[in-house]
Amino acid sequence: MRELELKYGCNPNQKPARIFKEYGELPIEVLNGKPGYINFMDALNGWQLVKELKAATGLPAAASFKHVSPAGAAVGLPLSDVLKKIYWAEECELSPVACAYARARGADRMSSFGDFVALSDICDLSTAKMLSGLVSDGIIAPGYDPEALEILKAKRGGNYNIIMIESEYVPESVERKQIFGITFEQGRNELTITDVLLGNIVTDNKNLPDNAKMDLIVSLVTLKYTQSNSVVYACGGQAVGIGAGQQSRIHCTRLAGNKADNWYLRQSPKALSLKFLSHLKAAEKDNAIDSYIGEDYNDVLSDGAWQNIFKEKPEIFTSYEKREWLNTLNGVSLGSDAFFPFGDNIERAFKSGVKYIAQPGGSIRDDHVIKTCDKYGMVMAFTGMRLFHH
Questions:
Q1: What is the DSSP track for 152-173?
Q2: Catalytic, out of 66, 155, 213, 259
Q3: Beta-sheet pairing, 69-75 with 61-66
Q4: What percent of the chain has pLDDT above 70?
Q5: Residue 344: strand, helix, or coil
Q6: Model confidence band, residue 303 (pLDDT cutoffs 50, 70, 90)
Q7: 390 is catalytic
Q8: Where in the chain is the domain with CATH 1.10.287?
Q9: How far apart are the first and last CA of the chain?
């Protein structure tokens, strides 16, 4: 099959719409549902991310995509009891692939709601069972176990989008797209991301442990498929904060840092001790937790409101208590798709436990950025490679 007609493009008024290859066959097969234009954009970007992440780490990888940027990305490391709890995975049997997706989905649960899933490996029964209870638009993977496929086909009233892709497919080295009737052409970004890119450490502290190298690789591969400007915080084999598509780098750093803070605040004793009413769905609990740990916590604790969510009224989580808890977060890695122009990015990253940084370098203020890292004992590598994605 060389062409697949779509219902419409980005919006219902954008017709006709299709995906096609000028030469050769499409490397995909739709096993269920009718994926749309944005679904395919998420699926194909997500597939590239997880394929490269597995190649770089040797571990199964997963991504949770929304509107052509990842909401989360991770490799299949085992989950701690705390992560199982905050990812609603305590009752799940977790294969390595399922662990990868639980991490990718769990770091920013509000953004991942209604995602498109990408898996580097065959979707197994464990992963399908997890997905069966989540709000998701579709999935792309190189294959599906028969039992897993039947479970996924039952989602969304039988309309869940399931795409299988040829794992060995390699696209042409030149890519094209049109804007306003004008064709753009460029070589594909075929940069291979490995720890070789982390060899040029420019800070006084040059101690870069293996776990930090892996987290930096996770951040850099994720950046490669995140709409620019972008910054990614990573910890424990997963992206924990993604700031995408911002015009200012400090806004990327703040956005991603706030998401990383939320991820860690969910693990605080106060958040873990919340007792929800039994009828609440996971998404409703997620919203309540985010409100509780955020600036609008008074909304969920106001007279009467909490009774619709919690079995008992939670204690107030003060700003001081939140900061004290966040001060225990450390060893976080951060990647940036372009150089940091000012040290304010480093100052903000430090507040979210960042210890290790990878960025291209090349700013006229590199010296100031390095000095800011040295002030906090951080390790920073200049990769010399920009990772813009549009």
A1: HHTGGGGT-EEEEE-TT----S
A2: 66
A3: antiparallel
A4: 98
A5: helix
A6: low
A7: yes
A8: 269-316
A9: 28
**Residue of 39, 45, 161, 229 marked catalytic:** 229
**Alpha-carbon separation of residue 102 from 30, 65, 149, 366 (angstroms):** 24, 13, 18, 37
Q: Which CATH superfamily is domain 3-170 in?
A: AICAR transformylase, duplication domain (3.40.140.20)
Q: In this structure, what are the phi and psi dihedrals at residue 305, rounded to the nearest 5 degrees?
A: -65, -45
Q: Are 79 and 94 in contact (CB under 8 A)?
A: yes
Q: Which long-range contacts (CB under 8 A, 24 or more apart) does 120-125 make?
A: 120/50, 120/51, 120/53, 120/54, 120/60, 120/61, 120/62, 121/54, 121/60, 121/96, 121/97, 122/97, 123/97, 123/148, 123/149, 123/152, 124/95, 124/97, 124/98, 124/148, 125/151
389 is catalytic: no
Helices within the chain (DSSP H only): 37-57, 81-86, 96-106, 109-112, 125-132, 146-153, 210-224, 249-265, 269-272, 282-293, 297-301, 319-326, 344-350, 366-375
Task: State whether residue 258 is helix, strand or coil.
Answer: helix
Residue 297: pLDDT over 80: no
Structure tokens at 224: 């490669």
State which amino acid sits at residue 301. Answer: L
Please list the residues that pair with 5 across neighbouring strands: 18
Across all residues in the chain, what is the average pLDDT?
A: 94
Sorted by sequence, the CB contacts under 8 Å of residue 74 that are 6+ apart come out as 61, 62, 63, 99, 100, 101, 103, 104, 107, 218, 237, 238, 239
Q: What is the pLDDT of residues 109-119, one digit of tens each?
A: 999 999 999 99
- The secondary structure of 174-192 as a DSSP string is EEEEEETTEEEEEE-----
Per-residue exposure over 79-113, b if at least 16 CB sit within 10 Å of its own CB, e if not: beeebbebbbbeebebbbbbbbbbbbbbbbbebbb
67, 153, 313, 368: the active-site residue: 67
Residue 262 annotated to the active site? no
CATH 3.40.140.20 boundaries in the chain? 3-170, 175-265+326-382
Cα–Cα distance, 218 to 236 (Å, whole number): 10
Domain 269-316: CATH class, spelled out: mainly alpha
322 noted as active-site residue:
no
Which of 3.60.15.10, 1.25.40.10, 3.60.10.10, 3.40.140.20 would CATH assign to domain 175-265+326-382? 3.40.140.20
